[in-house]
Amino acid sequence: MNLPFTPEQFLSVFEQYNVAVWPLQILLNMLGLAAIVLAVRKTNLSNRLIIAILAFLWMWIGIAYHLAVFAAINPGAYAFAALNIIQGIIFLTIGLSKDKLSFNFRSNIYGIIGAILIVYAMVLYPLLGYALGHVYPKAPTFGLPCPTTIFTFGLLLWTDKKVPKSVLIIPLLWSLIGFSAALKLGIFEDTGLLVAGVAGVVLILVRDRTVPSPAPAVSGNSPV
């Protein structure tokens, strides 16, 4: 796959984005932390709020990154933007349904691996990038495609009901596309993207064979 831009142009897009949206990176990280707290300390609104955060993050990527800056060097960014916005709509649709996704951190293998992916996305990813020479503002920050995709798989591993297959398709697709491009561009911290996508989907599918499906809505005319 020949890329229509150079590594330097790609890093310059991160710089343009980071300078343009500052200090909203702080808000994006706070949203990520809020989703973690809501999954660990459950409330009646936790599931809806976490889904809303994920929907916002994916739509943010499509609009604020792909359309606003990445499209200037890559015509394919319009298709990527559409996919990200669709993923946000998928989350919103699920959020309007009753308990289609239920987040609840548990200290089993899925919860631990999910936690590792979340820590990688929010902490280790930027640290590894810095060690590899990707220094802010010419570096991907949380709220951009790759760390956010890793973060999404981490949270989905914290669910305790079956995850609709529609939720997994676009994040998995991006993990494959983003990783293949990142290798050519020298963004080696995105190796975690491939691991998150493949391992995340496999683990979720295996786990979902043993967890209950969301209960159907009960009609108001049903007998008690």
Describe the structure in your own words.
The chain contains eight helices and no strands. The chain has 224 residues and is an all-alpha fold. It has one domain (7-207). Helix 2 (24-40) runs antiparallel to helix 3 (46-67), helix 6 (145-156) packs antiparallel against helix 7 (165-185) and helix 7 (165-185) packs antiparallel against helix 8 (191-207). The chain is globular, with a radius of gyration of 18 Å. Mean pLDDT is 92; it is low at 217-224.
Task: Describe the SSE topology.
Blueprint: H1 7-21, H2 24-40, H3 46-67, H4 77-95, H5 109-131, H6 145-156, H7 165-185, H8 191-207
Secondary-structure content class: mainly alpha
SSE arrangement, N to C: HHHHHHHH
Number of strands: 0
The number of helical runs is: 8
Strand content: under 5%
Envelope shape: globular
Number of domains: 1
Main β-sheet: number of strands, strand sense, barrel status? none
Mean pLDDT: 92
* Cα radius of gyration in angstroms: 18 Å
Low-confidence stretches: 217-224
Keywords:
8 helices; mainly alpha; single chain; about 220 residues; disordered C terminus
Summarize, please.
The protein is an all-alpha fold and 224 residues long. It has helices at 7-21, 24-40, 46-67, 77-95, 109-131, 145-156, 165-185, 191-207.
